Amino acid sequence: MAIKDLQVKQGNVDLVAEVVEIGEVREFSKFGKPGRVANAKIKDKTGEIELTLWNEDIDKVKVGDTVKITNGYVNEWQGTPQLTSGRAGKLEVVANANEGSEDSDESEEDIEE
User: Fold this and answer.
1) Which domain holds residue 49?
2) Which of 30, 78, 91, 100 could form a disulfide linkage to 85, CB 3.0–4.6 angstroms apart?
């Protein structure tokens, strides 16, 4: 799937893209539980989109990493489309910034069949 093809309210999004920017981490409390959120920007050869990072995903990702989103969802915030892995989806780093485009050993065991 390519970024240019994503539509708002689209689910079941699977794509691989490079992280080009990560914004400030914000803390919040929902139903009495603390959480963290940050907006990132990802790109592939077809375009760019905002990516919402939640909690532990924030610590996994660095600028220059290549990430794989499985079962993501496109929502809209203040008129801007945003991709999120959400509750049902998964975000994994498939190549670290300093490793180039090769898959890391860690990601291979996490990839679903």
Assistant:
1) 3-98
2) 91
Under 8 Å CB-to-CB from 39, ≥6 apart: which residues?
22, 23, 50, 51, 52, 53, 82
Per residue in 38-68, is it b (16+ CB within 10 Å) or e — as a string? bbbbbebeeeebbbbbeeebeeebeeebbbb
109 assigned to some structural domain: no
In a domain, 106, yes or no: no
Query: What number of other Cβ atoms are within 10 A of residue 71's Cβ?
Result: 15
- Is 79 inside a domain boundary? yes
How many domains are contained in the chain?
1
Q: Are strands 47-54 and 66-77 parallel, antiparallel or unpaired?
A: unpaired
**Separation between Cα atoms, residue 84 and residue 53, nearest integer Å:** 7
Longest CA pairwise span in the chain (Å): 41
Residue 8 in this model has a pLDDT that exceeds 80: yes
pTM above 0.85, yes or no: no
